[in-house]
Design goal:
heterodimer, A: alpha+beta, Fumarate Reductase Cytochrome B subunit, 2 domains, 4-stranded antiparallel sheet, 9 helices, 8 strands, globular, B: alpha+beta, Sulfite Oxidase, Chain A, domain 2, 5-stranded mixed sheet, 7 helices, about 30% helix
Chain lengths: ~290, ~250
């Protein structure tokens, strides 16, 4: 899409230089930690589902309490065969093949009573000890990559641009209206638009710390040195529920993020996160 | 329709391939030391500090569950069970100045730790129970560990289906934690066979698999490298982390 300079919206010219010009958008630290985090999150989600499978239910309580169960995923035998049943806040949903009675992960296509199917878990077959090994290793990778991003990629350049400020809040709806094609031009903004700032600020400074703390709260050794944290989360089993909710939020973020990467110039976006360079254009600042 | 079947079957193949790929990675031995480095970090940072939360009697879980291996069935254990453990002795040996054996009556006389704590299972569930028994730290002072002693080995009466004996280990820091105990009672009654009679370990600052049931003998050692699988416990020999504070 070369030669769009003449038709680019004013905001891009004002805020981000000449459209069509290639700029250096993401530092090495940002790019490297982005992809390391991407891999870590995949392994963390899959090994987390493996760990979930060992006790496939979630309680809103301190100790386990079936009376305060918010989710359970189980296999059941019926007169017509085995079924998978997912119970959410007391509502039963038949989820055979997808949840509850699913692929055993051995690679032979056999099904067994099992909350999440083999292709969703790491490893595929039931192995709690293995799942924990991968989960705790990549939890460290996640934390270290986040730390490196904040220190090397973030503090100096990126953070001031990416943190949501009070002045961004009134621009969030106009930006959403632009995305929904209710408005021709986005509101004025810098490298990141108000919705990007809101999303990244939420993930970096709310969701990531939350997923770390709720995970740690499951550890009896951590509980022994930080009771108030576990108490604030509603207790140990409640922390397990929150940790699961945080995972769902990450998956939601992932799909929203990928949708925007694809819909705002996939190749240009990928180039900027792999090689660093990015061609300015009418999409500048409206990306993923 | 054919196209739909083709799409569905290729998706199924891709998904099966996903499980096979993660299974292969899981069995890749060369990466184990890297993965296990996380355990070293967790042990260094979290360790055995602070104290597990204490609960009120009203918090105790009703319908107390049984988990892990089945109750021992070997004749030696069944004989003790028959005579209510009257002839049971708990020998403490290895790197100690004063190796000796304890009767159940002697252990009861030392039982000064009565606490209501939460038992966190590695599977993800938890129960609250009241365990009473002997604080392990002061118990070990009676036998005086030698300077070379680093680990306490708890041998169990229990065996798995293949005949492998159950055992577990703690280091001296974990053993000396004031909440670590040789439990004799659960919820006000002597332990029953299913819950580890006559003596079980209870360490509420770690996951349940460290709390060895049916303790048959105790041994102090400098290293567990040459005991059974060499990983410091039955579950550890089966892939679980030795440090179970997380």
């Amino acid at each position: 899409m070369d030669g769009t300079a003449g038709t680019a919206p004013k905001h891009a010219q004002a805020q981000a230089g000449t459209p069509g010009r290639v700029v250096y958008r993401h530092s090495v630290a940002t790019r490297a930690t982005h992809w390391v985090t991407f891999v870590a999150l995949i392994v963390l989600v899959m090994s987390g589902l493996q760990i979930f499978n060992a006790a496939p239910y979630l309680d809103a309580s301190d100790k386990s309490d079936p009376a305060r169960r918010v989710l359970s995923i189980e296999g059941r035998d019926t007169a017509t065969g085995s079924v998978g049943v997912t119970t959410v806040f007391g509502h039963e949903i038949t989820t055979t093949h997808l949840l509850g009675y699913t692929d055993d992960g051995q690679g032979g296509g056999n099904e067994t009573p099992r909350a999440f199917p083999g292709w969703m878990t790491f490893p595929g077959y039931q192995d709690l000890a293995g799942g924990r090994r991968w989960h705790f290793f990549f939890a460290w990778i996640f934390v270290i990559a986040g730390g490196i991003y904040l220190i090397f990629g973030g503090v100096a350049k990126e953070l001031p641009l990416i943190i949501l400020r009070p002045s961004d809040v009134p621009k969030m709806w106009p930006m959403q209206a632009y995305y929904l094609r209710l408005r021709k031009e986005p509101p004025d903004h810098g490298k990141y638009n108000p919705l990007q700032k809101a999303g990244y600020t939420a993930v970096l400074f709310v969701l990531a710390p939350f997923v770390i703390v709720t995970g740690l709260a499951l550890a009896p050794g951590f509980d022994a040195i930080a009771h108030p944290v576990v108490w604030l989360l509603g207790g140990r089993q409640f922390a397990r529920t929150w940790h699961f909710v945080a995972m769902l939020a990450f998956i939601g973020f992932f799909f929203g993020h990928v949708f925007l990467v694809v819909s705002t110039g996939f190749l240009n976006n990928m180039r900027s996160m792999i090689a660093g360079s990015y061609r300015l254009g009418e999409h500048e600042g409206t990306g993923p | 329709m054919k196209r739909r079947i083709f799409v569905a079957s290729s998706m199924a193949a891709a998904l099966a391939g996903c499980a096979k790929a993660t299974n292969s990675l899981n069995e890749w031995q060369a990466i184990r030391p890297a993965l296990d480095s996380a355990e070293t970090l967790d042990h260094a940072l979290i360790g055995t500090r602070g104290s597990a939360k204490l609960y009120a009697p009203s918090d105790i879980t009703q319908d107390f569950p049984v988990n892990g291996l089945a109750t021992p069935t070997q004749s030696e254990y069944l004989a003790y069970l028959q005579d209510d453990f009257a002839s049971y002795r708990l020998p403490v040996s290895g790197l100690v100045e004063r190796p000796q054996s304890f009767t159940l009556a002697q252990l009861r006389a030392l039982a000064s730790l009565d606490q209501i704590t939460r038992h966190d299972c590695v599977e993800g569930w938890s129960v609250v129970g009241r365990w009473a028994g002997v604080p392990l730290g002061s118990f070990l002072q009676l036998v005086r560990p030698k300077p070379a002693a680093r680990y306490v080995v708890f041998n169990s009466f229990d065996h798995d289906q293949d005949g492998t004996q159950f055992y577990g280990t703690l280091d001296l820091v974990q053993s000396a934690h004031p909440q670590t105990q040789l439990a004799l009672d659960l919820n006000g009654k002597p332990l029953d066979a299913a819950h580890g009679a006559p003596v079980r370990l209870r360490i509420p600052t770690q996951l349940g698999y460290k709390s060895t049931k049916w303790v048959k003998s105790i041994q102090l050692v400098a290293s567990f490298d040459h005991i059974f699988g060499g990983q410091g416990g039955y579950w550890e020999d089966n892939g679980y982390a030795w440090y179970a504070g997380i």
